[in-house]
Design a protein that fits this description.
Layout: H1 6-143
């Protein structure tokens, strides 16, 4: 029949408890600490990755904002260049118009001078021409 030996039960319980404490101290404890440390490193890495993603997104936003500002600045530069080009064009047109008016005034003055010179020459040589014409008419009249 089956009998329970109390000394064996006590020694079995004591052996089990000794084995439990030894395993817990030398195997399970270090293993659990190692796994906890590993989990903590993984969490820290994930936190760093989230922080890096946030920083990257912030940099992307700043880059997009800088790009928009650059485009707006470039547009303003182009508009200002267009305005300066229009002003320069107007200035050149005014200068050309002034030069044309001056050339026209110079031409009128030169034409006036030439008319005066022609009138003076006509007065100086008019008598000679009239006498030469009269003489020629007289000769032509005598021949006929």
């Amino acid at each position: 029949m089956l009998t329970i030996n109390p000394s064996e039960v006590i020694w079995t319980i004591l052996g089990f408890l000794a084995l439990y404490f030894l395993l817990r101290r030398f195997l399970y404890g270090p293993l659990i600490r190692h796994m906890d440390a590993r989990n903590e490193r993984i969490r820290a890495g994930l936190d760093e990755e989230k922080a890096a993603q946030g920083a990257l997104e912030k940099q992307r936003e700043l880059l997009a904002q800088a790009r928009q500002e650059s485009l707006a600045g470039a547009g303003e530069i182009l508009r200002e260049a267009g305005r300066q080009d229009e002003r320069l064009h107007e200035q050149r047109l005014q200068a050309a118009h002034s030069a044309a008016q001056q050339a026209e005034a110079d031409a009128e003055a030169r034409a006036g001078e030439l008319c005066e010179q022609a009138a003076v020459q006509l007065q100086e040589h008019g008598e000679e021409l009239a006498s030469a014409l009269a003489e020629r008419l007289f000769r032509e009249g005598n021949r006929a």
